[in-house]
Specification:
- With 310 residues, the protein is α/β, with parallel strands linked by helices.
- It folds into two domains: 3-91 and 278-295, Rossmann fold (3-Layer(aba) Sandwich); 92-270, NAD(P)-binding Rossmann-like Domain (Rossmann fold), CATH 3.40.50.
- The chain is built from nine helices and twelve strands.
- It has a seven-stranded parallel β-sheet with strand order 8-7-6-9-10-11-12.
- The longest helix has 20 residues, at 92-111.
- Bound molecules: NADP nicotinamide-adenine-dinucleotide phosphate.
């Protein structure tokens, strides 16, 4: 029997995903009608991006799962009309991209690249960086992305600490949890990486009090979500040198408005939410595998816990 898969995302994404998804569905043996236009009561699965016009899931009475194209689900998880399972994106390409972005920006600050690249002024600044083994990087969030970044940085020799909601035991990473664990992570974070999902609990996590726990000259990287940080508190903290620099990839309002003080601040680097992208070829295989599982009555992968919000 044909499985009806509604692609509910914008046209540009449809152009990117149509062929990879058709190929991936065929490869897992699902006979699928993949389309952007299927009557709601006939839809079996919805491939979804939060920018979609589809906001009312009530008419999708036989839909077995909504399969999100992005890792972050904060814009859909609280939708009161969504009562079917929601899966988020876990994609090897997305993970690799994040590891590369985080590693690159950690090394920028660790090696002091700005000092040597931006100031070719005849001054002999003989100020060699410490070895990675003498530099602590703390990562808030030890999920799919945080753990992969932590392992890559530990592989380079960095002293890596990570913080998560539940206790963990990951080789080469000092795993922390709870309020005391967060305090410990922040106090030792020469470079702090935020890779938490945005939930009620994590919104404004980095407030003035927590920013004040960072060592002087610490650096923050935020490829997680903009609202993990209180913007005003960060701007005030930058003036005190704790942190000394913030490299921000995510913002409360995206695109970041031209008048936002982050753009002009000398101690802020803005990157336009490019830390990592879901890659259609690998992401299509993840979606197809979940549809195969649904059709075979096997448990879905990467389900979102609606109570936790991620
Ligand atoms: P994930 O696998 O769900 O991992 C989330 C991690 O955060 C887990 O370790 C979880 O702890 C921890 N966490 C959640 N709530 C917490 C709390 N209240 N206190 C302490 N720890 C908490 O997510 P992921 O795939 O790694 O992605 C993380 C985020 O990255 C996404 O939600 C998205 O916002 C962002 N992202 C950004 C980009 C970009 O281009 N900038 C791209 C992709 C994703 P447990 O392990 O105990 O559950």
């Amino acid at each position: 029997m044909t499985t009806n898969v509604l692609f509910a995302a914008n046209d540009a994404l449809w152009q990117d995903y149509r062929d990879p998804l058709r190929k991936a569905l065929a490869e897992v043996g699902v006979d699928a009608n993949l389309s952007t236009d299927i009557p709601a009561p006939k839809v079996d699965y919805i491939v979804y991006s939060p920018g979609s016009d589809l906001q009312d899931f009530t008419p999708y009475t036989r839909c077995k799962a909504v399969l999100n194209l992005w890792a972050g689900v904060e814009n859909i998880v609280t939708n009161p009309t969504l009562d079917m399972p929601l899966a988020r994106m876990v994609d090897e390409g997305l993970t690799q991209g994040m590891v590369e972005w985080v590693t690159g920006h950690v090394l920028r600050h660790h090696l002091g690249l700005d000092t040597h690249i931006m100031h070719q002024d005849g001054t002999w600044r003989h100020d060699p960086p410490p070895l990675a083994t003498d530099r602590t990087v703390a990562i808030l969030g030890l999920g799919q992305l945080g753990q992969a970044c932590g392992e890559a940085l530990a592989g380079l020799g960095f002293d890596v600490a990570g913080w998560s909601r539940s206790p963990k035991d990951i080789p080469e990473i000092t795993c922390l949890h709870g309020d005391d664990g967060l305090k410990d992570a922040l106090e030792k974070a020469e470079i702090l990486v935020l890779l938490l999902p945005l939930t009620d609990e994590t919104t404004d996590l980095m407030n003035a009090a927590r920013l004040a726990l960072l060592p002087r000259n610490a650096v923050i990287l935020n490829p997680g979500r903009g609202a993990l940080i209180d913007d005003d508190a960060l701007l005030a903290a930058l003036d005190l040198g704790k942190p000394a620099h913030a490299t921000l990839d995510t913002f409360r309002t995206e695109p970041l408005p031209p008048e936002h003080p982050f753009w002009a601040h000398p101690q802020v680097t803005v990157t336009p939410h490019i830390a990592s992208e879901t890659r259609p070829s690998s992401a299509a295989r993840v979606i197809a595998e979940n549809i195969r599982r649904g059709e075979a009555d096997e448990p879905f992968l990467h389900l979102v816990d609606r109570d936790l919000g991620y």
